[in-house]
Amino acid sequence: MKDSFAREGRRVCASAAETKALGRELGRAAEAGDVVILDGPLGAGKTTLTQGIAEGMGVGGRVTSPTFVIAREHRPAGQGPALVHVDAYRLLGEGSSGDPLGELDALDLDTKLEQAVVVAEWGGGLVEQIAGSYLVVALDRSTLAAQDPECEARIVSWRTVGR
Fold this sequence. Notes:
Helix content is about 30%, strand content about 25%. It is an alpha/beta fold. About 40% of the residues are buried. The chain is built from 6 helices and 7 strands; from the N terminus they run βαβαββααβαβαβ.
């Protein structure tokens, strides 16, 4: 990850548009070999953040939740790395071999992981095995919604693990 994105931080994003804008910042700083874990409950904004990352990286294709396909690969429009968007929950779920790296490799992606940016929704338990360092991003919608049920804001916090 380029130094333009802080190794650790926290931001309140008042809307999906602000979440996507944060993702664009992260995407502009992403480099081949980077791994990002997105953690948060359903509806927290993981895919919205990933859409922003894709925009910041300049990759092509519509970014949607990888829930039904396990992983989607988005090719760069220019010279940058590809984006591999993974639903690690499905990858590690029922019926898996118990070997997350083998499961990811079995997807037969065209891009080698070290030449791409990997964004893994529900990625805890997977990324530790494929990367020496990674960025963990937690999306929390419940804290602010508990204070105001009409609130659409989320608290996004991140930290780099390793190196």
